[in-house]
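Dear H.,

Thanks for agreeing to be a second pair of eyes. The structure we're designing against is below in token form, covering all 167 positions.
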């Protein structure tokens, strides 16, 4: 809603929001079958969603491969040169009851292997914002109470607009 104060926003969810704001359009849809043509969206954001897909908690079907399918669907609709912003819990991989997954950093990056990782930041479980994180520098220490973090990722679709000239 806040973003719609400065730019037009389209919000897609299996449970669309019953709100009316001038620059916000809410649509019913699934992250497993987005209502967009292939390579048609310039900028996508998936904030605190992917970790829930396939767990059945929010009315979606139970599917152990739901998160992989959702990541593939985001890549399908992202246009060449487009930007994808994702936030998910990262740390020791696990499912927290049926609420959400905590993903290994390598899993997140691997789910988007068709895209280039542009930037990454963390909010650790002490509330510290850590920008510009490099994947090779990440360490989670359960003994120190830092067993996971909120990972914020920016990916880019490096695909070419004119397929004829791609190498």
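And this is the sequence the design step returned. I haven't edited it by hand at all.
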């Amino acid at each position: 809603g806040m973003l719609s104060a400065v730019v037009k926003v389209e919000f897609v969810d299996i449970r669309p929001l019953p709100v009316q704001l001038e620059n916000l359009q809410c649509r019913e849809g699934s992250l497993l079958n987005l209502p967009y043509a292939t390579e048609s969206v310039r900028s996508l954001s998936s904030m605190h969603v992917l970790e829930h897909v396939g767990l059945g908690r929010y009315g979606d079907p139970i599917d152990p491969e739901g998160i992989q399918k959702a990541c593939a669907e985001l890549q399908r609709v992202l246009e060449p040169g487009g930007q994808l912003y994702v936030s998910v819990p990262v740390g020791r991989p696990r499912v927290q009851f049926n609420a959400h997954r905590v993903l290994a950093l390598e899993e997140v990056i691997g789910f988007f292997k068709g895209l280039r990782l542009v930037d990454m930041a963390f909010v650790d479980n002490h509330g510290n914002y850590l920008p510009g994180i490099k994947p090779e520098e990440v360490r989670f220490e359960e003994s120190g109470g830092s067993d996971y973090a909120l990972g914020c990722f920016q990916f880019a679709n490096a695909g070419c607009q004119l397929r004829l000239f791609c190498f």
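Two observations from my side: The mean pLDDT is 87. Residues 66-77 form the longest helix (12 residues).

Warmly,
E.
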